[in-house]
Amino acid sequence: MAGDYQPPLVAVLLHNLPHLNIRLHLINSTFAPENELYLESLGILAFIPAACLILTLLILLMYFLSRCCDRKPRRKRTITACKWVTIVFVVLLAWAAVAACLYGNHEIHEKMVEVLDGLKGMDNTVKDLEIKTERLKEIRTEARHLLDPLQTRFRTPPSQTSDTRHVELGKEMETLANFVDSDDIYKKFTSINRSMHMFKLRWLYNPLGKVELIRWIGTMGLWGLLVIFCLILLIGMCRHSRCTLITFSVCGLLAVIVCWLQASLYLIGAVAIGDYCMQPDTYLESRVHNVEDAKVLEYYMRCPRAPNPWGGVLNQTRDGVNTAVKSFKRSTQISDQLYPDQKDKMNHLGDQMNKLALMVPELQRQLECKVIYPHYISSTRICHRGLYGLCFMLLASALCGICFTILFWVDSHTWIYLGNRKNYQQVDGQDPYLPPTAASQAIAARTLRSQGDGRGFRDEKSQHGGIHPGGSDALPGPNHGQYATLSKQCKTLESSDFY
Predict the structure, then answer these.
(1) Does the structure show a pLDDT above 50 at 498?
(2) pLDDT, tens digit (0-9, with 9 covering 90-100), for 60-91
(3) What is the DSSP letter of 421?
(4) From start to end of 101-159, where are the E strands?
(5) Are 396 and 107 in contact (CB under 8 A)?
(6) Model pTM?
(7) What are the pLDDT digits (tens) for 206-256?
(8) How many other C-beta atoms lie within 10 A of the C-beta of residue 30?
(9) Per UniProt, what is one Pfam family of this protein (predicted)?
(10) Where are the domains of the chain?
(11) How far is CA 344 from CA 48, 160, 335, in A?
């Protein structure tokens, strides 16, 4: 694949991002997840969205502090057309970002499924190779059990002593026995299985598949919640509901935090995958330290350009099987004529030899690079549309963070000036058309007592030659009825438990 592979443009752009350590020194951007400096550089890159989140929270905090410190009386306002246009536009923009993120999530999931299928295909190929190698051992054992009695029987000359073909039969059977007794084929395929251990990937694709399923479902649910948050805001605006708008303030602040945190995670993943996709073969080759394993890996990665590391071994095995099959056929022809009573046993031995003759070429075909190479190509599909989908999610998360920041600010600026209920009006407590309250009656009673004390003093002066003659208890003037009413109310209050 090295000669035909071209890294995608987005991988090149992500790979060229400056990789800095904690001291802000440039480091090598080659994909190396086991390197602490490389992981440190990814953490520094992830701090960029985190810094945007911190800055956003500080700006919102300053806004609320300014609102709290503002003691000027606020005139209740309605939702203006400008706020309506701003909120609807930003909500539509946020929904577009959510749609882009869901599209990217779908692309990543599809490519991850292909990657998992490729890993599983390589693992199944190796597992099937091991099963067939064990089956080869069983065929050899069964053939050995059939050969022992046949060789013993063929050592006895037939009734026709003049026929010397039983000597040739003995030689052919000896050649066949040497082939069956030899561990050469079994050892060769066992060695090949050990060389294929790098493609045993069950430990990887099983947990990776579970994580991917949880990630896919969780992302769909989380971005669905953001859509619901926008609906809460629109409902609150339509109903002029202060409570609903305050609810969105809480949800919107949570959405801002979640969006920027997701952007940090997506940025780490995108940069790491971009670095890997620059030279995926080089990274895999760096993980192999054995020369034989390196040849095997090169054979499957650069198929069909790389030489077959088992070419000589497989050719020798094929030649040995062909020789054994020819010996068996010649032995069958002679035994059918000289030892017709052993025909059934020779047929059973023939079944085992046929299985052996079919098994070895099948193992050879399964070891060809064309079998594993498509699975390897599938495992690298994340480098193309999958990486583009991850970048969609990164940009959508950042855009959603900005949109929800704007929505949070406009919403907070709206419910602060919005009344608790629609068409609710404050009523003046001193409205003359309302009946007097208990407090106003108490004040009137105190006033009446003070005025009564003044009237008694004036009556006393009148008896001694003051301005108002006469000792009538009635209150003079046009307010006589009012003071009589207040006097009755005063007596009622004094007799009650109000004081």
Answers:
(1) no
(2) 888 878 777 665 655 555 566 777 788 899 99
(3) S
(4) none
(5) no
(6) 0.72
(7) 899 999 999 999 999 999 999 999 999 999 888 888 888 889 989 999 999
(8) 16
(9) Tweety
(10) 9-69+90-419
(11) 80, 21, 11
Bond before 33 cis per omega within 30 degrees? no
| Amino acid of residue 432 | P
Residue 27 contacts residue 21 (beta carbons within 8 Å): yes
When the pLDDT of each residue in the chain is averaged and rounded to a whole number, the result is 80
Q: Contact, 2 vs 302, CB < 8 A?
A: yes
Of the listed ranges 34-43, 113-122, 212-221, 416-425, the one predicted with least confidence: 416-425
| Integer Cα distance of 440 and 183 in angstroms | 115
Taking CA atoms, 496 is separated from 257, 443, 489, 492, in Å, by: 61, 15, 11, 6
The separation between the first and the last C-alpha atoms of the chain, rounded to the nearest angstrom, is 99
Is it the case that residue 354 has pLDDT exceeding 70?
A: yes
Nearest CA to 56 out of 216, 253, 326 is that of: 253
Measured distance CA(315)–CA(217) in Å, rounded: 51
Distance in angstroms (rounded) separating the CA atoms of residues 254 and 53:
11
Distance CA 109, CA 215 (A): 9
Q: Which tokens is 58 given?
A: 């500080």
Say if residues 338 and 408 touch (Cβ distance below 8 Å): no
